[in-house]
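A protein record in our archive is deliberately plain, so that people and models can read it alike. The tokens are whole numbers drawn from a learned vocabulary of local backbone shapes. For reference, a complete record is included directly beneath this paragraph.
>
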Amino acid sequence: VQLVESGGGLVQPGGSLRLSCTASGRTFVSYAMGWFRQGPGKEREFVAHISWNSEKKRYADSVEGRFTISRDNTKLMLYLDMRDLTPEDSAIYYCAAGGIYSGEFYPNDFWGQGTQVTVSL
């Protein structure tokens, strides 16, 4: 499966953005999906994951209650709705395909190229 992220940009603190991840390949529906981010000088970190049928979702503590992950298997799309953004949310955001084991998301080798989110005045 190939993944392409979009929707990033510059937003003021307190603002909102919706990130999208477009997948190619019908195998998309068989994968759990996740969002990760990497800020300047930081390691890539987990943001959220969603099971193949959207029944299971999990969020990093830092985004719980502000971010919402969703997917549309009919359109081969993954989304991340972000609100109440802060400068600490500034990062390159990546979507990934993988699996969920014991509540943890394990990405495989399918990653997008990332989309930049900058939260600043």
Q: What stands out?
A: The chain has a mean pLDDT of 95. The CA atoms of residues 1 and 25 lie 5 Å apart. The first strand starts at residue 2 and ends at 6. The chain is about 0% helix and 55% strand.
